[in-house]
Amino acid sequence: MAPPPHRRALLLLPLAFLLLLVAPPRADAWGKEGHIMVCKIAEYLSEKAAAAVQALLPESAGGELSTMCPWADQVRWHYHWASPLHYANTPEVCNFKYSRDCHNSRGEKGMCVVGAINNYTEQLYSYGKKTSYNLTESLMFLAHFVGDVHQPLHVGYAEDEGGNTIVVHWYRRKTNLHHVWDVSIIDTAIKDFYNRSMDTMVEALKMNLTGGWSDDITHWENCKNKRSTCANDYAIESIHYSCNYAYKDVEQDITLGDDYFFTRYPVVEKRLAQAGIRLALILNRIFDGDEADGIPLQVQ
């Protein structure tokens, strides 16, 4: 099934016109480290899916998907049209509705992180067939946006741009709430818990997949619309976390310290792990076809 005509057309529009679709600049999701961690967790690929990913990766990736997962943030100033694809906004309500919330600043439907995940998934289904899509970029966009949709404040309130306009102090450092969830919580954890080693944190998250979260993975994999992605469900989860954790008890110029960090860090851990597991699931379904539906992820 090909993407709807209006989505195919978006990929072919001249850049000068696409610049009209630009939304206000947003902070990067998860930061570089978060996106790399998501893709390092997403190593539970079938043999067929792993081979397809390897074939699509650019030479600069060195054979590692994780090296390319920050790519969509790195090219934002070149691919201006993709800016609204990193997030979705709600009108200050704690629920996400695709028909109401998935659009860019000009009201064009499908131009949000959920629409992007579904669209690039559909493009990758053309792997092995004659196609006009750049499937290398499709893979890198998909891997990045699956991470984005799991960062709670990438499904936040339109009024504050997902926490970007809420000024806070992270301990002694002035920043904004969105950046706290993108970068600060992860950086603090890596520094305080993992001896400044991102790889050590990744290994800890993987160990949790066989320990504390082992009973949850089957639930994380559940997806009614298997050909699509369940990205809609992931966005619903994120706005829930935004309301109940990210925004909760936060106001302008507040100082966020240990109380906020220790109660929110478990959410960040879980969302990174879920993003990795679900990215692997999507890639297995794309490249293994119907066979993947009966093959559970082998988390060992």
Show the helix and strand layout.
Elements (H helix, E strand, L loop, with lengths): L4 H8 L2 H4 L12 H11 L5 H10 L14 H4 L13 E3 L7 H4 L11 H12 L10 H16 L4 E3 L9 E4 L2 E4 H17 L4 H13 L6 H5 L9 H16 L7 E3 L1 H31 L12
Parallel strand pairs: 1-2, 3-5
Antiparallel strand pairs: 3-4
Helix pairs in contact: 3-8, 3-9, 3-10, 3-13, 4-13, 7-8, 8-13, 9-13
For this entry, give a set of tags.
globular, mainly alpha, 300 residues, disordered N terminus, single chain, 13 helices, two-stranded parallel ribbon, 3-stranded mixed sheet, disordered C terminus
Task: Characterise this structure.
- Helix 3 crosses helix 13, helix 4 packs across helix 13 and helix 9 packs across helix 13.
- Strands 4-3-5 form a three-stranded mixed beta sheet. Strands 1-2 form a two-stranded parallel ribbon.
- The chain contains 13 helices and five strands.
- With about 300 residues, the protein is mainly alpha-helical.
- A hairpin with a 2-residue loop joins strand 3 and strand 4.
- The chain is globular.
- Its EC number is 3.1.30.1.
- InterPro entries: PLipase_C/P1_nuclease_dom_sf (IPR008947), S1/P1nuclease (IPR003154).
- This is Aspergillus nuclease S1.
- One of its GO terms (biological process) is DNA catabolic process.
Reading the helices and strands in chain order gives HHHHHEHHHEEEHHHHEH
Main sheet characteristics: 3 strands, mixed
What is the residue-mean pLDDT, rounded to a whole number?
Answer: 88
Instruction: Detail the poorly predicted runs.
Output: 1-27, 292-300
Instruction: Give Rg in angstroms.
Output: 18 Å
The coarse overall form would be: globular
Enzyme class: hydrolase
Organism: Urochloa decumbens
Family: Belongs to the nuclease type I family.
Protein name: Aspergillus nuclease S1
